[in-house]
Design goal:
Layout lengths: L2 E5 L4 H11 L4 E5 L7 H9 L5 E3 L6 H11 L3 E4 L6 H6 L1 H22 L4 E7 L11 E4 L2 E4 L16 H21 L2 E7 L1 E3 L11 H11 L4 E3 L5 E6 H13 L1 H4 L2 E5 L6 E3 H12 L6 E3 L8 E2 L4 H6 L8 H14 L9
Parallel strand pairs: 1-2, 1-4, 2-3, 4-5, 5-8, 8-12, 9-11, 10-14, 11-15
Antiparallel strand pairs: 6-7, 11-13
Helix pairs in contact: 1-2, 1-8, 3-5, 5-6, 7-10, 7-12, 10-12
Length: 342
């Protein structure tokens, strides 16, 4: 039986990935310090359906991380544990660095020392490309778009880290790739765009699709940073889990590679467009206020999925309309999970 160790496994992407692999017969071990709100609820839900192992520890603890890898000896490590908010990284850059950069180093070292044939998947971010000020952007029909890149940004785009978050995730991104070059570890980097879906406890400074949906359903105050015309390609978490599986199935070919993973040109959404969609679905008017742009925020980010389609034999299957509708239905049906917001 194949085994997978998922760091940050009680978080949004982690719990959905754990469910995905457990449902396919994998032995699943979750590593999580349970510091994020919703983690215990996620674990309770998962354990109600599947048998999974929890190792409650922090990836900043190198000895503990090495011990668990030595004990589990996983076929795959899916490294998701992270500090995930740009705004939080600006407030506390040391903690951001220790979790994202040092934490990733600790996990890589644990694999190198204890199970060097493990396939290592690192969840990076589109923020490693920075503001991409060299890429021409225009405005059309109330949304920003690339003027010369209709299919989006490819993996050949130069890296340009902005914000402490961009720096810490970028450092980890490059360490993962270099451990393949220097130590011949089987590593792959997924530079993820906006991931959304059920069991996402989004907050104002992270997880904007989920946060807008939660706020709209529960009648909470909303703030749009910037002018709301920013475009992102959004990817449902179930499609992301399929991409992880595709990388595992093609690991001999994809080790040492980075992939942009998002919804692609066919699944784009602006902040204002999401609000309009929610207003139609919920049949309400959603009030909001505006604030300045956040550090390193990109007016557009859309992944060019050509490399992922070619090497992973993968592409998104869940449309923006269907995915957001599923998310809002889930929030409405599980409002009690958000009582802490009252």
């Amino acid at each position: 039986m194949k085994s997978i160790l998922i760091t940050g496994g009680a978080g949004f992407i982690g719990i959905n990935s754990a469910r995905y692999f457990a449902s396919r017969g994998w032995t699943v071990t979750i590593v999580d310090n349970l510091s994020r709100r919703g983690g215990n609820d996620n674990l309770t839900w998962l354990r109600g359906n599947y048998s999974v192992r929890l190792e409650q520890l922090d990836v900043r603890n190198a000895d503990a991380m090495t011990h668990v890898v030595a004990d589990v000896k996983p076929d795959v490590v899916l490294h998701l544990a992270a500090q995930v908010a740009v705004t939080s990284s600006v407030v506390n850059p040391r903690e951001d660095f220790e979790i994202n950069a040092l934490g990733t180093f600790n996990v890589l070292e644990a694999v190198r020392l204890e199970k060097a044939d493990t396939f290592f998947i690192y969840a990076s971010t589109n923020k490693v490309y920075g503001k991409m000020e060299d890429v021409a952007v225009g405005e059309r029909n109330g949304r920003y778009e690339y003027l010369d890149l209709p299919q989006g940004i490819s993996e050949t785009q130069p890296l340009d880290f902005h914000s402490p978050y961009g720096c810490s995730k970028g450092v980890a991104d490059q360490y993962a790739l270099d451990y393949h070059r220097i130590y011949d570890l089987r590593t792959v980097v997924m530079r993820q765009s906006c991931i959304y879906g059920t069991r996402q406890f989004g907050i104002e400074d992270q997880g904007w699709v989920a946060w807008f949906t939660i706020a709209a359903v529960l009648g909470k105050a909303l703030t749009i940073y910037g002018d709301g015309k920013q475009i992102r390609d959004v990817l449902h978490v179930d499609d992301l889990a399929r991409a992880y599986e595709a990388a595992i199935e093609n690991q001999a070919d994809v080790s040492g590679q980075a992939f942009n993973l998002g919804g692609g040109a066919a699944n784009t959404l602006s902040l204002r467009e999401l609000l309009s969609h929610l207003e139609r679905q919920l049949e309400i008017k959603i009030p909001y206020k505006t604030a300045d742009w956040r550090p390193g925020d990109q007016p557009v980010f859309v992944c060019d999925l050509a490399k992922a389609k070619r090497m992973l034999h993968w592409q998104p299957e869940i449309s923006v309309h269907d995915g957001v509708s599923m998310l809002s239905d889930w929030v409405a049906a599980n409002a009690k999970l958000f009582d802490w917001m009252k």
